[in-house]
Design goal:
The chain is built from nine helices and eight strands. By secondary structure, it is of the alpha/beta class. It has an eight-stranded parallel sheet. The structure holds 1,3,4-trihydroxy-5-OXO-cyclohexanecarboxylic acid.
Length: about 240
């Protein structure tokens, strides 16, 4: 069953699926993001999975900030295999792979199996101008159920640009997930859902963050709840 992302989804991001059974995950997370690239035998881990949270499967390329060691064909083939597991409700595919024409098979397999698709783009260096944020999200949305963009904010203006792009796409009816990585933009992880962002990522244990600036799960859950952030209510 695909995750519908109709409302905000808080994902416990981890390399270790056992985290899905941790009290913090059971209490605060709506899904678990399994970073397949950060573990040795991800398909075996999926086979052993018996917790109740649905899984977002991500097999991040090294050229997109991940740690997958093999080539891209194999990386996407392993991701396609992950869609066979009932617990996998969504996959995350790099927009770059989609635009290069490398992801057709994995996207088709996911669609056939009713698994939702997140098309993602990351900028670990900075934040492109607002117009570019909008066009990247619009492009990603053509191929996926959720268009995701993670940037690195270097100024408050960067965070405003990201939130503004989030609001624009959401107002237009597109499903997006946005966040600014690093210290300057950290608060966007709590605030972006107010403007429509559909997915937030947080580790169960802050020492095991999967991206710079992440809050731990309990903290992010509380911040979002306090701010009343809910994707469906942005108009
Ligand atoms: O793409 C994302 C977002 C993320 O990079 C973040 O900034 O929280 C964390 C990653 O695990 C996830 O795949």
């Amino acid at each position: 069953m695909g995750i519908d992302f109709d409302s905000f989804t808080l994902a416990a991001a981890t390399a270790d699926l056992a985290d899905a059974d941790e009290p913090a995950a059971r209490e605060h997370a709506d899904a678990v993001e399994f970073r397949m690239d950060l573990t040795d035998d991800p398909l075996e881990a999926l086979e052993d999975y018996d917790a109740s949270l649905p899984i977002i499967a991500t097999n991040r390329a090294a050229w997109e900030g991940g740690e997958w060691g093999g080539d891209d064909d194999e990386r996407l083939a392993v991701l396609a295999e992950a869609t066979a597991f009932d617990a996998v409700g969504a996959i995350d595919v790099e927009l770059e792979s989609i635009l290069e024409g490398e992801a057709e098979a994995v996207l088709e397999t996911a669609r056939e199996r009713g698994v939702s698709i997140i098309a993602s783009s990351h900028d670990f260096e900075g934040t492109p101008p607002r117009g570019e944020l909008v066009s990247t999200l619009t492009e990603a949305g053509k191929y996926a159920d959720v268009a995701k963009l993670a940037v690195t904010a270097e100024s408050k203006a960067d965070t405003i640009a990201l939130l503004s792009a989030t609001e624009q796409l959401t107002y237009h009816g597109d499903r997006v997930a946005t966040m600014a990585m690093g210290e300057v933009g950290r608060h966007t992880r709590a605030v972006a859902p107010v403007y429509g962002s559909r997915i937030g990522y947080a580790p169960v244990d802050p020492a095991e963050a999967t991206a710079p600036g992440q809050y731990d799960l309990e903290t992010l859950s509380r911040l979002i709840a306090d701010l009343g952030g809910s994707a469906a209510e942005t108009k």
